[in-house]
Amino acid sequence: MNTLKVALLGAGNVGSEVARILIEDSEVLAARAGSKLELIGIAVRDTATKRGQHIAPELLTTEAEALVDQADLVIELIGGIEPAGSLVARALKRGSVVVTGNKALLAERGAELFQLARENGGHLGFEAAVAGAIPILRPINESLSGDRITKVMGIVNGTTNFILDAMDTTGADFADVLKQAQDLGYAEADPTADIEGFDAAAKAAILSMLSFHADFRLGDVYREGITSITADDVDAAKEAGFVIKLLAIAERLEDGVAMRVHPTLIPRVHPLGAVHGAFNAVFVEADNAGELMFYGQGAGGRPTASAVMGDLVSAVRRLTRGVGAAKDADEVVEVRSLDLKPLGIEHVMTSYCIGLTVTDRPGVLSRIAAIFAENGVSIEQMRQSRGNDEENQASVLRIITHRGSEQALAQTVASIRELDVVSRVNSVLRVEGN
Amino acid sequence: MNTLKVALLGAGNVGSEVARILIEDSEVLAARAGSKLELIGIAVRDTATKRGQHIAPELLTTEAEALVDQADLVIELIGGIEPAGSLVARALKRGSVVVTGNKALLAERGAELFQLARENGGHLGFEAAVAGAIPILRPINESLSGDRITKVMGIVNGTTNFILDAMDTTGADFADVLKQAQDLGYAEADPTADIEGFDAAAKAAILSMLSFHADFRLGDVYREGITSITADDVDAAKEAGFVIKLLAIAERLEDGVAMRVHPTLIPRVHPLGAVHGAFNAVFVEADNAGELMFYGQGAGGRPTASAVMGDLVSAVRRLTRGVGAAKDADEVVEVRSLDLKPLGIEHVMTSYCIGLTVTDRPGVLSRIAAIFAENGVSIEQMRQSRGNDEENQASVLRIITHRGSEQALAQTVASIRELDVVSRVNSVLRVEGN
Predict the structure, then answer these.
(1) Can you give the residue ranges of the ACT domain (chains A, B) (predicted)?
(2) Chain B residues with CB inside 8 Å of A28's CB?
């Protein structure tokens, strides 16, 4: 059996797990891949930093370029654009197999790197960059290659799912749960990228690119975070049989794809409703396959390392059999069968769950219902509960609409806001999967 | 763009959908595959039978062998061993790409057919034969190729899931729901293969083969059906936060794989608990990836046709790029890195939910608890509810145990059955995912 040389770039959270697997599982990997995989070095910034006990100090080097030049297979887990980008390009120019988990690099220089892989007979594997351990790239790109994806809905950010799930389970407030998530390491000290939906929006763009074979960017994605979700919202959703999730949604419309990230009510019995804690899931609707869902851990050292190793072993199998390593995942970026443009949220059909505080007197409901009718929005359910505020005779209304155009729904809310009998619009949340 | 000739064998439920997709979506398929796909004929037993309106009568032929000999790509959807097996072998000997959804044929002659594909540079795609539209073959075989699968739990039979889900939702009895499922076409007139777990057991063997790279057969799988599940069992499970599902479970143990199919209590919040109606799902546990789940439709014309087309387009992409079609799914059967043997259910650790009718008098609980203790089985929860049978002073006990060896649990139940204070053992169900 021949031996292939593996260079590992980066020894962080994921990198050190990849090193461990390469060393501990070398026999099984060789049997599966058809070649022995020899870890010849790990490029790090500082060789003095202590690493895991399975990493022999002599493997560490600061000479990343020299390491790349000696390797048949390069695993890039440094992250960020540079020096990662130059090292990946260098390896691909040599015709090497490169496996990366670097979302930022793909978003910024993906097209160029895939072309380098094609031109030089190399291969760029990137399953680990999309939804961590969840196999999503091959299912979308190969298993569904004879079908037409119409909609993708994903829980793609573990931090926000952990927070919303904890709010749902404990009834606690957003701020308390965020604090707890930070203490447990599920949320960063500066949680903005997660809780404001930026991370989910970037993933929505990548999933859309994979699903609809078109170039989309973060800026094409409509975005709302979860910071305004209250314990009351969660409670009200529960009462109506729903759970609130931060969803990344990409939808094929007549002449383009609408992408959006926002907190969303989904039925508790929906498969996405059973995604708890920091787990992720991607729900796909296709013309012929119908509904599919892929569930798993979207982040973390070991799960992401599993995806890296899957790319590596699959590529080595092809190399070993003399098939040439490239020629599968590369299609994702190459095949552009459709000329779909990004569309704003105003193009989608959705339904709303609206919470209002209103004056509790006769005729209020009919005035509110009239506004829905004027805008052509039909009401699926309405529930009134008297507030504690006896003196002001206020009551709280929860209205869930049928599906209508986003524009009609937004106009309805704007008109309701102006009614004198409405003292407050407490919340406006979209509903999916109903 | 070059054109490849496609022969379709069979025009049943799945075949007619495949024909429709090949005809209606020809442009999109050509763009994705890199070659035009021309449906040159459909082999059927009787050309006089009426087919869907998209199928031109001149496409139909009874000369299957002649059709196979003219084709670059052969789609086998006849089912059964013969003539399907001879036709598939004939095509593979010619070095053609063959895509099949034929579970029975794979189980009986898989090894021989994969070898024919390898020897002659052909390819045998079979994603459609495993869990219908759910992409499971590539995720297990490629995405997890650098990981170690430890356990697979699947809802792999739509009929039984439809029945159990309806019992859970409506509180109805097994017999009534079975009748309803038959009326709706979800269950066959003779439902034995489904409700006695034979279909699920065959799928358990195939999933185990894929997951653990070893040869397993239907006969290696322990099997219990769902015919003895009562509305009371479903109710009691619900009360305790569980739902009853027919699971196909394959588990890696020290020196082998234990495979079993039986009705199982799983927590309602478990991802498998959100699999409703006739949907299927496969839940996978791997050393590094952790928990993964793949969800979708396990049967039906259009979903299965989607899986067939995915195999076809993926293979054509490789052909078009001159890579040779084979060399990916074939590994599934070829790679035998481990020598794992099938193990009986007595080797597994599980937990039980036991329902008993007992005499309601002091000392009964302690006698029952003593038997658990003697067998080293610890009790997680016990619930006593008084029955209606005031005169006989009977009460009903539900006991859920912690995890113990199957042998110890079975021994516990046998001893309890002999107690004079136990008038009836109402049900014994295993619990997973707790």
Answers:
(1) 353-430
(2) 148, 337-338
Count contacts between A and B (CB, < 8 Å): 214
pLDDT band at A425 (very low <50, low <70, confident <90, very high): very high
Q: Which residue in the set B288, B295, B338 is minimally distant from A292, CB to CB?
A: B295
Is A151 among the domain residues? Answer: yes
pLDDT given for residue A216 in this prediction: 84
Catalytic positions of A: 203
Interchain pair A289, B274: CB under 8 A:
no
Residues of chain A numbered 315-354 and touching chain B (CB < 8 Å)? 317-318, 321, 323-324, 327-328, 331, 335, 337-338
The catalytic site residues of B sit at: 203
Check whether residue B198 and residue B114 sit in a common domain: no
pLDDT of A389 over the 80 cut = no
Q: What digits encode the pLDDT tens for the residues A98-123?
A: 999 998 888 788 888 989 998 998 89
Tell me the CA distances in angstroms from A183 to A3, A95, A180, one per residue in order. Answer: 45, 45, 5
pLDDT at A358 over 60: yes
Q: Write out chain B residues lying below 8 Å of A299, CB-based.
A: none
Predicted local distance difference test score (pLDDT) of residue A333: 40
The total number of structural domains that make up chain B = 3
- The reply to whether A298 touches chain B by the CB within 8 Å rule is no
Give the integer Cα–Cα distance in Å for A258 and B140. 32
Residues A327 and A285 in one domain: no
Report CB contact under 8 Å: B145, A276.
no
pLDDT at residue A103, as a whole number: 84
**Residue B340 forms part of a structural domain:** no
Residue of B nearest to A328 (CA): B318
> What is the predicted pLDDT for the residue at B387?
64
Q: Do A303 and B289 touch (CB under 8 A)?
A: yes
> What pLDDT is attached to residue A131?
86
Q: How far is A279 from chain B (nearest CA, A)?
A: 9
Reported as a single tens digit per residue, the pLDDT across B96-121 is: 999 999 988 887 888 889 899 989 98
A225-228 LR contacts (CB < 8 Å, sep 24+): A225/A160, A225/A195, A225/A196, A225/A197, A225/A263, A226/A160, A226/A163, A226/A164, A226/A174, A226/A195, A226/A197, A226/A263, A227/A174, A227/A195, A227/A196, A228/A427
Evaluate if residue A320 carries a pLDDT over 80: no
Is A103 labeled as ligand-binding? yes
What is the domain extent for residue A12? 3-133+301-334
Shared-domain flag, residues B158 and B205: yes
| Mean pLDDT across B220-229 | 96
Asked if A261 and A278 count as a contact pair (C-beta separation under 8 A), the reply is: no
Q: Which amino acid is at B298?
A: G
Across the interface, which of B17, B281, B297 has its CB nearest the CB of A290? B297
- A141 and A281 housed in the same domain: yes
Angstroms from B10 CA to nearest CA on chain A: 19
Rounded to an integer, what distance in angstroms lies between the CA atom of residue B23 and that of residue B42? 12
